[in-house]
């Protein structure tokens, strides 16, 4: 492995054997990266398969030529790998989590909301139909009550009304109401579908933009690091490297590296500086905010399912509500109509008592709120595999927060292995800096 890395990090191969070894290394790397690039474009970014294949093949060929011919490009590409464990890698993982939530959880929430609306629509339809049918009860009661009044009016010979019945205009055809309710339900469904499509399309576009920006920024960040490494001796130069240890031993100044120091660290050690710890805490807090937003969406999914499941079960358990109409009309046996009696006396006719009778009627009807003919879709429970995938991704994200420092140190080591002569200059600069501080102390 050390020999292969030595061939890979050399500016120019020493012989034909190293040249073929370098070509095989670059070919294997580009084959693996090309496969991952295709899977990323097709599965995560949801591009078409033929576009994904074309982009993956073109990217692989370009990457092969670049890695094989350009030595600094190999260094930049090698530093991109550990950089994936830093904030740019977290951006890619966060975009993947967002895509998983949008594609799987949001449609589930909308589906359960549709179930709730179907339950409400079923209740409204059946209750309105039952209420319309109850108007027939009023018509029957009014007709019978009119019969009783008609019998009373028939006993008067002077004036007889044409008809003593109450006239009700009943709505016999309820198709108009059903049609309006159906149109309202269809409109609500179309509105929900439009919102779902809009959210999915927006997140897809945003995810593609974030992914493309993250990949470009990965290349930029690695290039920026290499540029500063090669042009600034003070940049990221506070590690106890093997070249620095060898230099202090040769100059009999090993005491410079003995004892605790807050300014220099060993790149292979687990110790973190104060700045590195604060950076990890800030990144962890930002990641926690994103996690809380994801948990809100997951909680909404569970809440929508519980409400839809409860509504669907309770709707089938609604009992019929009895409605009773009682009509009671009572008149004393010796009652008289005052105006008619005065008229009879004025005409010199004897007054006549009206044989009014009591009227009592009871009418029963049942209001129905649910029916077996209602088309209510079953609520969809949350997918546990989606929650597991999101949970595992966030575990990886939290791990990358604390691995970011060590990934940064690995980039430093990669750059030093590609440019050994410059690494010696950096070690000499740090040695002089430590010597100067030791003399001043």
From TrEMBL:
Entry keyword Transferase: no
Cellular component annotations (GO), alphabetically ordered: membrane
Keyword set, alphabetical order: Membrane, Transmembrane, Transmembrane helix
Lineage start: Eukaryota, Metazoa, Chordata, Craniata, Vertebrata
Transmembrane regions: 19-41, 47-71, 92-110, 277-300, 385-403
Dendritic cell-specific transmembrane protein-like domain location: 235-431
UniProt-recorded name of the protein: OCSTP protein
Localisation per UniProt entry: Membrane
Primary subcellular site in the record, as a coarse category: membrane
Annotated membrane topology: Multi-pass membrane protein
């Amino acid at each position: 492995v050390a020999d292969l890395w030595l061939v890979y990090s050399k500016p120019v191969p020493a012989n034909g054997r190293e040249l073929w070894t370098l070509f095989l290394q670059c070919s294997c790397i580009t084959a693996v990266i090309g496969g991952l690039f295709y899977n990323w474009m097709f599965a995560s970014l949801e591009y078409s398969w033929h576009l994904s294949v074309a982009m993956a093949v073109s990217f692989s060929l370009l990457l092969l030529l670049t890695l094989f011919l350009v030595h600094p490009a190999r260094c930049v590409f090698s530093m991109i790998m550990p950089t994936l464990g830093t904030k740019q890698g977290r951006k890619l993982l966060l975009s993947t989590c967002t895509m998983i939530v949008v594609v799987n959880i949001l449609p589930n929430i909308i589906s359960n909301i549709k179930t709730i609306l179907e339950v409400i629509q079923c209740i409204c339809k059946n209750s309105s139909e039952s209420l319309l049918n109850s108007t027939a009860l009023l018509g029957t009661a009014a007709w019978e009550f009119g019969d009783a009044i008609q019998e009373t009016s028939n006993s008067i010979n002077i004036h007889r009304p044409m008809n003593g019945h109450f006239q009700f205009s009943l709505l016999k055809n309820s198709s108009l109401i059903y049609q309006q309710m159906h149109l309202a339900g269809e409109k609500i469904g179309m509105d929900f579908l439009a919102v779902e499509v809009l959210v999915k399309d927006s997140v897809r576009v945003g995810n593609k933009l974030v992914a493309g920006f993250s990949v470009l920024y990965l290349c930029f960040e690695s290039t920026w690091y290499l540029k500063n490494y090669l042009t600034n001796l003070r940049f990221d130069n506070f590690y106890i490297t093997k070249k620095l240890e060898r230099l202090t031993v040769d100059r009999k100044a090993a005491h410079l590296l003995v004892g605790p120091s807050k300014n220099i660290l060993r790149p292979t050690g687990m110790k973190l500086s104060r700045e590195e710890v604060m950076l990890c805490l800030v990144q962890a807090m930002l990641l926690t905010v994103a996690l809380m937003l994801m948990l809100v969406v997951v909680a909404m999914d569970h809440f929508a399912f519980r409400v839809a499941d409860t509504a669907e079960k309770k709707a089938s358990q609604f009992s019929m509500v009895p409605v009773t109409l009682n009509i009671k009309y009572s008149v004393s046996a010796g009652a008289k109509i005052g105006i008619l009696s005065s008229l009879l006396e004025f005409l010199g006719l004897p007054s006549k008592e009206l044989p009014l009778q009591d009227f009592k009627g009871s009418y029963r009807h049942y209001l129905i709120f649910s029916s077996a003919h209602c088309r209510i879709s079953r609520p969809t429970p949350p997918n546990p595999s989606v929650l597991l995938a999101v949970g595992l991704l966030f575990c990886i994200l939290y791990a990358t927060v604390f691995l970011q420092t060590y990934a940064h140190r690995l980039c430093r080591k990669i750059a030093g292995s590609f440019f050994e002569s410059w690494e010696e200059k950096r070690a000499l600069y740090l040695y002089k800096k430590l010597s100067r501080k030791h003399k001043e102390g």
